[in-house]
Hints:
Low-confidence stretches: none
Structural class: alpha+beta
Helix content: 10-25%
Number of helices: 1
Order of helices and strands: EEEEHE
Amino acid sequence: MKKFKVIKEFKDIHSGEKYKVDSIVEVSDERFEEIQGNLSKHDDEYIKEVKPRKSKKKAEQPPEEEGA
Length: 68
């Protein structure tokens, strides 16, 4: 699954749904490629892929000494 942010409003050719600006949409990888391919025929940017954030693991801290 991939997520994308809508940069410019467009209408889905399959569902007829309108995607509004700033919406975050999740679709299958295959559907993402299809949407991106169809919209790339226009001279404007309509969507931008949202990459998953990598969580930063906290560095393990040594246990505190008792009585210090």
